[in-house]
Every structure is written in structure tokens, then in C-alpha cells.
Design brief:
single chain; about 160 residues
Length: about 160
Amino acid sequence: MEFNVTLLGQAITFAILVWFTMKFVWPPLTNMMDERAKRIADGLAAAERGKQDLEAAEKRVGDELRKAKQQAMEIIASAEKRATQIVDEAKENASTEGARIVADAKGQIDQEVMRAKEALREQVAQLAVIGAEKILRKEIDAAKHADLLSSIKAEF
């Protein structure tokens, strides 16, 4: 009987241990495991949301880059067009300025030619007067007159 009593005592002790474990130990363990499973599930869901957010952000970044590149191309095209306009305007202004300078130069040349002609006329008139004076001072002789005119020519 001793063996049966011992076995019966051990069975009762085991039953108390099982009851105690199920009553006081098992519920906190179950709660901890449930909380951990919930935290893991929340972490996985957050990771999935983060992955989706990252993909969406990468897509937005790609769209913004495309838009920025397109805007840059438009700005460059506009700048090139404006540069061409500026060059054309500068050529036109230079052509107009060149024509004005040429016209001014021609006007100055014409004035200088007129001044030179006037100065030449004055010199011719002076020579004629000087020649006439010398002719009148000397006697009237055709050979002497020719010689005198030759000498006047040589002087000037």
C-alpha cells in the first residue's frame, strides 16, 4: 500500500501543481505570448505599410524628377531661343550702326573733298593773280609769258 499511497500522493500533488500552473502561471504566459504575437503582427503590418509608403515615395520622386527634367529642358530651350534672338538683335544693331558709321564717314569724306576743292580753287586763284601780276610787271612778250608761266608752275 505504501506504493499506492505514494502514487496517490504524487498524483494529488501533480494535480495541485497542474491546477496552480493553470490558475496562476499559465494565464500570464498566455497573455505574454498573445501580446508578443500582437506586437509581431503590428510590426509586420507596420513594415508592410512602410514598404508601401517607400514604393509610393519612390514613385513620387520619379515623377518629380521627370517633371524637373522636363522643366529644365523647357528652360534650356527658352534660353537658347532667347540667346538666338539676342544674337540676331545684336547683328541687326551692329549692321545699323555700321551703316550709320559708313554714312557719317562718307559725309566727312565729302566735306573734306569740298574743303580740298575750295582750297585748290583759292590756290589757283592766287596763282592766277600772281601770274597776272608778274606778266603785267614785265613787258608783254609771248615767249617770256610762257617762260614765266612755266616758272610759276614749277614754284607750286
